[in-house]
Amino acid sequence: MKMRYKMSGKGKGQEGFALIAALMAIFLLTVLGALVFVVSTSDTRVATRVVGEKKAMASAESGLHKLMYFYDPSLVTNTGDAACPGYAGYLINTGADADSCYSFSAPAPPISGPQFIAIPGFAISGGQPWGQARYTTSVAGINKRYNSRVETDAGVGFGPVEVTTAYR
Question: With 0-12 CB in 10 A as exposed, 13-18 as middle and 19+ as buried, what is 117?
């Protein structure tokens, strides 16, 4: 004897509901997994960018210190090192961080404000006053590993120089 089942009433038309529900659950779990992956990798990208910018800022500070220590307006050039190719910059320290460089623009007299600043008490027996000549420059720190660059504007003084209109 063969038995036949006939759907009638409430159950009619619900034969594929379990398959659709399973596919929707898989889709939702896939979307949730993709969202978790994107959020976790974006945190890593942000942290990597911050590390690169900190290394570039440290390079810019190192360049600024070197520029201030060795600054002479007649001798400043920015030819760069062969160890920092493509950046026309100077390598910070090959042993500790071979990927960090600094670069600076040619110092120029300031656009606004005084060009010379007198140094109080620095005059020869009350005669000719002496001071510092002001210059502005832009110092860039570069980190090649993280492909980051930080640029800062700086003022540099050179002196003592005679503070007169006859300054050469």
Answer: middle
Question: What residues contact residue 66 under an 8 Å CB cut-off, 6+ apart?
Answer: 90, 102
What distance in Å separates the CA atoms of residue 139 and residue 67, rounded to the nearest whole number?
9
Point out which residues pair with 108 in neighbouring strands: 136
Instruction: Dump the DSSP string for 92-127.
Output: EETTTEEEEEEEEPPPB--SSS-SEEEEEEEESTTS
Helix (H, G, I), strand (E, B) or coil at 25: helix
User: What 3-state DSSP class applies to 159?
Assistant: strand
- Check: CB of residue 104 under 8 Å from CB of residue 63: yes
Distance CA 137, CA 154 (A): 5
Global pTM value? 0.64
Q: What are the pLDDT tens digits along the chain (168 aa)? A: 666 655 555 555 566 788 888 999 999 999 999 999 888 888 888 888 999 999 989 888 988 888 888 787 777 665 556 556 555 567 776 567 778 888 888 888 899 888 888 877 666 665 677 888 899 888 888 888 898 989 999 888 888 888 765 444
Element (H, E) at 26: helix 17-70
